[in-house]
């Protein structure tokens, strides 16, 4: 029988490294400030805070993604109205 070249090191749960970290109060304030310049639904802000409770980096990616979508929609509307 062949011996595997790479042994699976993630068989035991205690060996799995947790790379996520919850947000601090300061991080949550920064996250809310990101939304302050835009008309953002409360549901979106609360969702970002809920994500931040488990993974701070993911919450900021969520916020950036949402805000980029808003910016792109506004730019698209400006271009469309300029053509008419």
Automatic annotation (TrEMBL):
Highest taxon, organism lineage: Bacteria
Protein's UniProt name: Uncharacterized protein
Gene source species: Pelatocladus maniniholoensis HA4357-MV3
């Amino acid at each position: 029988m062949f011996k595997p070249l790479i042994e699976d090191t993630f068989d035991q749960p205690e060996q799995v490294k947790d790379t996520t970290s919850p947000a601090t109060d300061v991080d949550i304030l920064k996250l809310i400030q990101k939304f302050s310049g835009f008309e953002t639904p409360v549901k979106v802000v609360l969702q970002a805070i809920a994500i931040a409770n488990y993974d701070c980096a993911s919450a900021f990616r969520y916020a950036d993604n949402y805000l980029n979508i808003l910016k792109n929609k506004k730019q698209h509307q400006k271009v469309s109205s300029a053509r008419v």
